[in-house]
Amino acid sequence: DHRLHQPSSQSAGVHRGNRGLAAVPGGSAGVQSVHARLHGEAAGKVRGEVMRAFRTLLAALGRGDPAMKMVLVVRTDLGLKKGKIASQCAHAAVMCCMRAATEGGRDTRRQLDSWLAQGQPKIVLRVDGSEALHLLTQRATAAGVIAELVRDAGRTQVASGTETVLGLGPERSEVIDSLVGDLKLKVGGFISAWN
Asked: Nearest CA to 29 among 50, 11, 6, 60?
């Protein structure tokens, strides 16, 4: 069959009896045309992103890059709820990535690319207070490792400016391990590690 397949009104997100079609040039056919165009543009963007990620992965594998990881260190003394911990860890991960992408040199960006190609491994660890976060931040900075400390905005569970999570990396696993090898995994109803 050489005819072009036309999506049905249901697959195009058009429901019979929808009065909004009168506002779309061409009615149902116009909606289908817009849907097809948007679908094509989105598919093209997704294909581009997939190919870019695939090329990054191949480059990392070809270089024989070492294992990379990011560590998120959570304060347990604050008694944060699971959702709050998750959001604070997300803040730390984004802050670390943005710093690696924008402020880091060529080696830092290469480490970021390698970490992304390896599936962005992250480990969540715990400490009992802000002093431990400060000490770890100093050690990481001295070792040349990205260290981003999250200070809460104070709109929910803790006061504004409270330090909640420290993000470290992305960095070579052995370097991260030398900094945090004595810390324990964050457990007790929360994800202990992401890979």
From this structure: 6
